[in-house]
Amino acid sequence: MTFGKFDKPIAESKYIVSVKSKVLNWRNFLYFSGMSIMPAHVLKNVDGAAYLKDYNFKLIPGSGAYKVEESDIVKGKSVSIRRRTDYWAEKVRRNVGLNNFDEIREIVVRDQKLAFEMFKKGDIDDYYVNVSREWVEELNFDRVQRGLIQKRKIYNDAPSGFGGIAFNMRKEPFSDIRVRKALTLLMNRDELIKRLFFNEYVPLNSYHAGGSTRTRTTRRTRTTSRPR
Q1: SS3 category, 122
Q2: Other residues' Cβ atoms within 10 Å of the Cβ of residue 143
Q3: Cβ-proximal residues to 84 (8 Å cutoff; 6+ apart), any chain
Q4: Boundary (domain end) residue, out of 56, 75, 108
């Protein structure tokens, strides 16, 4: 378990918490700093059984800019997320320009094809496209051409996931580095991107984004949206 690798946190003061890790790992900074802050007076009454019973359709109170009331949940159909009018960090520098919507409604659609058809009709405001063929061949219908639906590629500096081929170096013939090198030379990545991914993928220049060696392939983020 991730958090089993930490000692019990210590409250140094009202606003400072310290924790020690039992294992040396740079990701510990990421793991611990990404934890949500929950109220102790609520958590002290919640064990595993109570959580499974009581919190399938409600949230433990948090400290974020939005809230979800039980009345905002329509089981199996939708969840409405409402902006708090008393958010404590509204004017903090990192939040300037964020959290602009008074209400965000998430609609439950269990079938991806149905969700796409609902989007085309205008029943859903935005639709994330994760398939190159769909982006190229299925998103040029009349409402896109008329500008009622905006088709956009959005770029940012966040590391992107990648796809590729991995070798099991413990087994022959992949235990031989010459074989692995030969196979990488035989793979025409540019042709694969062109033929299979409609030129929508970009060769990544490292195993991890930001490195220097071309080894993997990643995709651009694509989305479409309809004005409200």
Answers
A1: coil
A2: 15
A3: 64, 65, 66, 67
A4: 108
23: which 2 tokens? 């294992």
Whether residue 124 is found in the same domain as residue 191: yes
Alpha-carbon span 62 to 211, nearest angstrom: 37
Rg (CA), the chain: 24
Per-residue model confidence as pLDDT tens digits over 132-187 = 999 999 999 999 999 999 999 887 777 667 777 889 999 999 999 999 999 989 98
- My answer on whether 180 and 215 are in the same domain is yes
60 neighbors 52 (Cβ within 8 angstroms): no
What does pLDDT average to over the chain? 86
3-class state of residue 42 by DSSP: helix
Whether 102 and 78 share a structural domain? yes
Residues 98 and 167 in one domain: no
Provide the domain limits for residue 3: 1-35
Question: For residues 84 and 163, what is the distance between their CA atoms, to the nearest angstrom?
Answer: 39
Q: How far apart are CA 101 and CA 85, in angstroms?
A: 11
Do 43 and 31 lie in a common domain? no
C-alpha to C-alpha distance for 104 and 152, rounded to whole angstroms: 21
- Read off the amino acid at residue 121: K
Cα gap 140→134, rounded to integer Å: 10
For residue 221, the model assigns a pLDDT of 40
Same domain, 92 and 170: no
SS3 101: coil
In the chain, the number of structural domains is: 3
In sequence order, the β-bridge partners of residue 216 are 204
Shared-domain flag, residues 131 and 192: yes
